[in-house]
Amino acid sequence: MGLSLLALSVQTVTDRTSNPFGLRPPFDRTGADDRTAVFGYGDANADFHVIGDHPGVHGGKRTGVPFTETEAGLAIQTALRDVDRPFVTGPRERPELDNCYWSYLHMCCVPDGHQPTEQGYADLERYFDAELRAINAHILLPVGERATDHVLREYTTQRRRVDLDMASLHAGDLRGRGFMVVPIRDPTTWEHGDRAALVDKLTAVLESDYRQTKGVATRVG
After folding, report:
1. What is the Cβ-side half-sphere exposure of residue 156, based on CA atoms within 13 angstroms?
2. Read out DSSP for 48-59?
3. What architecture does CATH give domain 39-212?
4. Above 60 in pLDDT, residue 219?
5. Which of 22, 47, 55, 155 has its Cβ near the most Cβ atoms within 10 Å?
């Protein structure tokens, strides 16, 4: 499905929580009984878009829902539940999301013990890009170094100005002309205070006039 069709269909699929745009993975490297991909999940009209790496890191190979199952995925989910106006309610394996959308750079699953290839990330980039633009969130929250690097490199002009030190970037903000990026350190490396810093940052953003930044229709920086 191309970008133009995604943009046209966004208003007609918002009642679908999982894979609202009907994406079809371009390849399958899993066994016959394994899940092919973990698709985007949540509110397709969300202002906040949380971007993970792949199902093996941030979860969903069993549930089909991003940010479930794994320690890292559940840590993100818990932080989003703890915000003053929670983004997440309901059961952990099939949560209800309000004003929040979750997706991965690499939605396709790979066999246990394997990592996605660089070619795999490249093959899936256009799918991620089309979905990100269709969601058109105000706030992008990339989780981990790869997702943060990708968002800053592809959707802003900030990457060359920023040292990709996730401990320093965590729960801060990088502003462009169209939206705000709030990088999140991967939870497997969180230290004391990192979860609270993220919760506090999201609470502060919700209390601000964040809608003054809008959209990713063009490159920003």
Report:
1. 24
2. EEEEE--HHHH-
3. 3-Layer(aba) Sandwich (3.40)
4. no
5. 55
